[in-house]
Amino acid sequence: MLYEKLKAYSDSGVYPFHMPGHKRTPTDGLPYEIDVTEIDGFDNLHEPVGCLCELQETAAKLFCSRYAFALVNGSTVGILSAVRAMTKYGDRVLIARNSHMSVYHAAELCGLHTDYIVPELIDGTSIFASVPPELIEQKLNADPAISLVVVTSPTYEGVASDIERISAICHAHGARLLVDEAHGAHFPFSDRFPLSAVRCGADAAVLSLHKTLPAMTQTALLLTNDGELAKELSRQLSVFETSSPSYVLLASIDRCLNYLQNSERDFTAYIGRLTRFSEAARALRHLSVSFDRFNADEKVYAFDIGKLCIFCNGCMSGKELMALLRSDYRIELEMALGDYALAMTSVCDTDEGFDRLLSALIEIDSRCKSAEHTAKPVSRSLPRQHCTIGEALDHDGKTLDIDTAEGKVSREYIRVYPPGVPLIVPGEIIDSDVLSQLRRLEAAGNEIQSDRSTFPLVSICG
């Protein structure tokens, strides 16, 4: 049933402006003939000395690092392993609040004491800007015991931070820097993209090959230039990653790396498509695309031109735009939130795909009326911490309706999806500001998720 459903979608003619980055261009079907295990001659992913060792050496060279680890459980396993390798149990860590849930789960498993940085919002949007290096320095000055800083760069929407400066600040204070670079695996392959994190001094970075490159879902890399850290990363990967890795996925990594070794012409063509699209999109009168808005905001250090944030500017919601593109134009976007929708592009996109999206936006734009009202961005404030994530999860609890939970300590994550950034974390107090944010987001049609119960119910420490 699943295979037939997937095949029908593949044959439907819907254009995929969403991940995975290969955009369904291979047509070989399911490759059962190469689905083997670690038999003789095929190496061991956790102690590679043969073909998998060569694969990882190739990856390290291509991605400008000394060490690279192939991942078949996605960037999530890289984040879990890296946080455990870079901290001791009970350490203090500083986390950008717009981090992936795997960062919070790592803090939970490692018993970490967390502090947070909340980046400002890009003007007029609900999109986080770059992480300010000076804010990290303030936090490290205030708490010299912080051993690890975790930053997401680029974000889901493509916003990158000044990793070179942040790295220097962290190292001056004796802290390590881990960068969740899941959405930036393509950065090394054109100078039109921001510099990759390990080239900027990050101690470790995690990349999702499948998001923006031609590789299958769940394929990723963990990179570092530190030999001693590499040894501990290897050990922790043997803890968190499967001992029966998929050779289909490993082969996909191999094919992706092989492609990247000869991809200069394709990336040049890709940049050309993006440039032509951005120039043509400036003719839109009501809708707009992120290029100019991100360029104009001084809070944005850099951004990925391959992420197309399409702003509705009050004409409709992002979800309405996404639904319209799906129903009337057979174009599927990656996500929508508030006043914008996100088209994810890759080197595998075609001229025809970009032309379809542009034509659709021009036609929709011609039917738009001037905005009668513009939704106000929902500010993101930090609730007060009562205890660590792990302590809250281990605490006995009870379930309440969220509207009666003010002043209580949450024992679950409450987040807006997509992109899944938590508004409240276990161990934090549910205050009036958080409740106001949740109500505004829910009223705007956003999906609110929780872990232990179905929102609007919430599990609290009782």
Short description:
The protein has helices spanning 2-10, 51-62, 74-85, 101-109, 133-142, 163-172, 209-212, 227-240, 247-260, 264-281, 290-296, 318-329, 351-367, 389-394, 432-443; strands at 15-17, 67-71, 92-96, 113-117, 146-152, 159-160, 176-180, 204-208, 220-224, 288-289, 302-303, 307-311, 331-333, 335-337, 340-344, 397-401, 414-417, 421-424, 447-450, 457-461. By secondary structure, it is of the alpha/beta class.
In what order do the strands lie side by side in the largest sheet?
2-9-8-7-5-3-4
Structure summary, number of beta strands: 20
Broad structural category: alpha/beta
Low-confidence stretches: none
Terminal residue distance:
44 Å
Major sheet attributes: 7 strands, mixed
Explain what you see:
There is one protein chain. The chain is α/β, with parallel strands linked by helices and 462 residues long. It contains 15 helices and 20 strands. It has helices spanning 2-10, 51-62, 74-85, 101-109, 133-142, 163-172, 209-212, 227-240, 247-260, 264-281, 290-296, 318-329, 351-367, 389-394, 432-443, and strands at residues 15-17, 67-71, 92-96, 113-117, 146-152, 159-160, 176-180, 204-208, 220-224, 288-289, 302-303, 307-311, 331-333, 335-337, 340-344, 397-401, 414-417, 421-424, 447-450, 457-461. The strands form six sheets. The chain has a seven-stranded mixed sheet, sandwiched between helices. It has a four-stranded antiparallel sheet with strand order 10-12-15-14. A three-stranded antiparallel sheet has the order 18-17-19, covered by helices on one side. The protein is globular and about 60 Å long.
